[in-house]
Write a structure and sequence with these properties.
Number of strands: 10
Number of domains: 1
Radius of gyration: 27 Å
Distance between the termini: 74 Å
Largest sheet: 8 strands, mixed
CATH class: Mainly Beta
Number of helices: 4
């Protein structure tokens, strides 16, 4: 008998090749380098407040506007907010997340900057805007109904960018 490959031998060889291919396919692959887009969405910490900073987008008839916002997600951070801050760049802000079941009101105690206080309803859309809230004022600025979040931006920025009630806010 010759040394030819039998049908059984061919099957063994085929199975061996398949197993080898599976091992290579299941091997850990080198980690891909982070893309600039991925880096832009990474969470960071704000140098002044120490709060987490995340991306936030407002989309509406005025276009799409991207911000990096501090997240005031603890009672302490919400009480302090932007008090005592003397600067708020146009691409930054602060978001106060809520559960979407209750109305909210904000005041400007100890806040030297005028702010736009933007109330985001349970549907993720802006319900109302307290534009150019007066620095240091103790007068409350109320939401119209329950809110999922309150976004604070530099005073006047919402009008400059065409941000208005009905615009979608995502964070």
């Amino acid at each position: 008998m010759g040394r030819g490959i039998t049908e059984r031998g061919m099957m063994r060889r085929g199975l061996g090749l398949c197993a080898g291919a599976l091992l290579v396919a299941c091997s850990p692959q080198p980690a891909a380098e982070a893309s600039p887009a991925a880096e832009a969405t990474e969470t960071t910490v704000h140098p002044v407040s120490g709060l987490k900073v995340i991306p936030l987008t407002v989309t509406g008839r005025g276009g799409t506007h991207r911000f990096r916002v501090e997240v005031a997600d603890t009672p302490e951070a919400q009480r302090k907010g932007l008090m005592f801050r003397t600067e708020l760049p146009d691409g930054e802000g602060m978001i106060f997340p809520y559960d979407g079941t209750t109305a909210q009101s904000f005041w400007m105690k100890n806040t030297p900057l005028p702010l736009d206080i933007i109330y985001v309803g349970p549907d993720g859309r802006i319900s109302n805007i307290g534009a150019m809230a007066e620095p240091y004022s103790l007068e409350p600025v109320y939401s119209v109904g329950p809110v999922l979040g309150v976004l604070e931006l530099r005073g006047g920025l919402a009008a400059e960018l065409g941000i208005e009630p009905g615009d979608k806010v995502e964070w």
